[in-house]
Amino acid sequence: MTPLDIVLLVAVLLLGVAFYGLLITRNLIKMVVVLQLLVKGVVLALVLAGNVGGRAALGHSIAVTVIVADTVVAVVALALAVQVRLRFGTLDIPGISSLKG
Amino acid sequence: MAAWLSLSLILIPWLGALLVWRTGDAAPTRQHALAVAFSLAAGVAALVLVPLASPLVVFTLPMGAFFGELTLVSDGLSTVLAAIACMVGALAVIFSVDYMRGETQLGRYYTFVLLFIGAMCGLVLSGSLLFLFFFWEITALCSYALISFYNDDPRAVAGGVKALIITQVGGIGLLAGALAVFASTGSYQIADLLAKAPQIAPGLMSVVAFGFLAAAAAKSAQFPFHTWLPDAMEAPTPVSALIHAATMVNAGVYLLARFYPAFAPIPGWTFAVMLVGLASALITAFMALTAMDLKRALAYSTVSQLGYMVYAIGAGGVFASQFHLLSHAVFKALLFLAAGAVIHGVGTRDMRQMGGLGARMPLVRVVFVIGALALAGLPFFNGFWSKELILEEGLKHTPWWAYGGMLLGAGLTAFYTLRMTWMVFFGAARSERHAHDAGMAMKVALVALAAGTLLTWLAVGGFSGLMEESLPYHQIHALGLPGLVEEILLAPATYGALGVMALGLALGWLLRGRAGVSPPALVEGLSRTSFGFDWLNGHTARGVHHLAALLQKTQTGQMNWNLFGIMAALAAVLLVLWWSAP
Fold first, then answer.
1. Nearest-CA distance from A11 to chain B in Å?
2. What are the C-alpha distances in Å from B508 to residues B83, B279, B365, B405, B501?
3. Rounded CA gap, B158 and B233, in Å?
4. In B153-233, beta strands by DSSP E
5. Considering only CB atoms, which chain A residues are within 8 Å of B555?
6. Which of A95, B242, B367, B408 is deepest in the core (most CB within 10 A)?
7. Is residue A17 very low, low, confident or very high in pLDDT (cuts 50, 70, 90)?
């Protein structure tokens, strides 16, 4: 098992854990955490792809861009979670299903 | 010069729309004045543009790799249609000064009317299929907004939504066709499509051709989409005259005429076009026989006359169809506006409550009779020349039963026209309603259109000459005025057709006393249900509702599922990209 394989395995593992988490998480704050896990898997895959493809600098720069964008997303998501807590009095996802068709 | 004029036909009305909207409903006099000024300016620009027609692209604006170029082409086909849109538009706006006086939301009204006029000019002038589609949809939006103008009336809202949905179904055909053309030729330009048509795979080309036929049928309210136009009559009458008689409903006929050279070689296409025209012309002529609502009767006759134009294209008579389009736009706008003056004066659309109105509105009666005679196709009004030209093309190029059907339609047209005119203006008054005469602005618009009804056929030489010179693929032969007169008056078929019309008129005269009486139950039932097509529409709508109720179950409102759905879709896209990578 080469180091590349190990990194790939970790990235896939992170994605798998995050997908599973998306399905079972019931708390909005935890949902943000799970999304962070997902993005970290993606960042790892980006860096890996840059190295394998021979364009390491491109992979790194895109990874940094994703981290920045993702931080913004996390901040906005947490702010929304605060608002949801104020409006609905709960962070429990099944309790805030007003989008049900 | 032509570039600026073409562009101004779109921008002048749109600028006017913006200004009327910004003026606000607190200053109705300024709104009236602005709308009249801008629509008249567009009308003048359109008339100046007509003699400058050429097959060349006069204006190009690159819109990026995805949208291609926005091009404007002012050839014989497009300039004449733009002139009709702007001139009838200006007259409808002038008419509205009286008709809409006292309405509280004039800004909304005039904004959409002016937006429509500009979009209609864009539709016909566009040399790019994609932008033709965009303008096509803007006209549909304006049509919807104006049908539903009286938005506290549930029937007006329902009529608008029905029109929007049915024309959207056709719009899908147009968009699919445009994208298929782009996939095959790498260009949205109509000129490229017409030039490269023989090299495009026949299978793909027939998809495009039949997609466009569906789009045209939906827009022009042709069979089997003819049910929306009668329900669109809830719109203010000047809008019915402009959009639902003289311009937007012609867009379908324009589309078929524009692409005729590319689609005609496709097996079955011209036959299908002919059948659509024949079915529309006959079905709605029957329905017009029993209509008691003045505007609905006119709407049925619009579908029927549009059927004649579509039939003419199926018979290969592109010029005949456009000539009838011109005649019909003028005399049907006249009929609608005259009907609007009557409705405005009497306060009802029900013909059973009219009768004997000629004494109280003599000018309206005179112009309505002029329009009615042109609709019936009697010599020597503009409708006579163009309808006979279509029937002659039909006799030469379509089977005998189709020609016979169109002859029958001409007889029915004469019959229902006489019935309608008699019920409104002649005989004894059937109600105690107080009727007041039309206002000055109304009379100006009516007299101008009546003059047009008497005179537009004289322009046949210039019109056909323009089309011959500026449409390189259509192989249209110029037909001078002496040529037209000779061709129509010396053909025996003309006198046969006139005989059928005379029969229709005679029948109408004999039955004139029974005009207000309900027709036989079978005829009445068939007309009321649009020959069963309203039933079909209803069931389609219910089917969609049912499907939506099934799909509703997937909308759990649970964030977990939504997020998972987004991620799964992303993964699916990535997988597709991965597989399709070379």
1. 15
2. 36, 23, 18, 19, 10
3. 11
4. none
5. 99-101
6. B242
7. very high
Backbone Cα Rg of chain B: 24
Distance from CA of B578 to the nearest CA of A (A): 14
Q: Which residues of B204-213 are buried (b: 16+ CB within 10 A; e: fewer)?
A: ebebbbbbbb
The 10s digit of each residue's pLDDT in B422-439 is 888 887 777 777 777 778
What's the per-residue H, E or C state across B122-175?
HHHHECEHHHHHHHHHHHHHHHHHHHCCCCCCHHHHHHHHHHHHHHHHHHHHHH
Helix (H) or strand (E) holding B16: helix B2-23
CB–CB contact B567 A99 (8 Å): no
Q: From the candidates A42, A97, A98, which should be mutated to test the interface with B, based on the most B CB atoms within 10 A?
A: A97
Beta partners for residue B390, in sequence order: none
In this complex, the residue of A25, A96, A101 whose CB is nearest that of residue B555 is A101
The distance of B245 to chain A (nearest Cα, Å) reads 41
CA atoms within 13 A on the CB side of B121: 33
Q: What is the pLDDT of residue B582?
A: 67
* Pair of tokens at residue A24: 């079972």
Q: Do A19 and B567 touch (CB under 8 A)?
A: yes
Distance from CA of A63 to the nearest CA of B (A): 18
The DSSP bridge pattern shows strands B57-62 and B69-73 to be antiparallel
pLDDT attached to residue B558: 77
| Residue B202: partners with Cβ closer than 8 Å, 6 or more residues away | B266
Among the partner-chain residues A28, A35, A93, the one whose CB lies closest to the CB of B558 is: A93
Contact B330, B442 (CB under 8 A): no
Report the interhelical angle of B250-258 vs B106-125 (nearest 10°).
10
Give the residue from chain A lying closest to B548, CA to CA: A101
| Residue-level pLDDT at A101 | 62
Residues B103, B109 contacting (CB under 8 angstroms): yes
Q: How far apart are CA B335 and CA B450, in angstroms?
A: 9
Per-residue pLDDT tens over the stretch B1-51: 788 888 899 999 999 999 999 888 888 888 899 999 999 999 999 988 888
Q: Is A69 in contact with A43 (CB distance < 8 Å)?
A: no
Q: Cβ(B164)–Cβ(B144) under 8 Å? A: yes
Q: Is the dihedral of CA B148, B151, B152, B157 positive or negative?
A: positive
**Is residue A22 less than 8 Å (CB to CB) from chain B?**
yes
Residues of A in contact with B559 (CB under 8 A): 28, 31, 93, 96
Q: Please indicate whether, in this complex, the C-beta atoms of A23 and B564 are within 8 angstroms of each other.
A: yes
ipTM: 0.72
Helices (H), B50-128: 76-99, 106-125
pTM of the predicted model as reported, rounded to 2 decimal places: 0.83
**pLDDT number for residue B429:** 76
- Residue B223 has a CB neighbour count (10 Å cut-off) of 22
Only one residue has tokens 């089309």, namely B467
Which residues is B73 bridged to in the sheet?
Answer: B57
Instruction: State the pLDDT at residue A69.
Output: 93
Please tell me the number of Cα atoms within 13 Å of B81 on its side-chain side: 32
Using 70 as the pLDDT threshold, list the residues of chain B that sit under it.
514-522, 527-530, 582
Closest CA to B219 of B266, B253, B194: B253
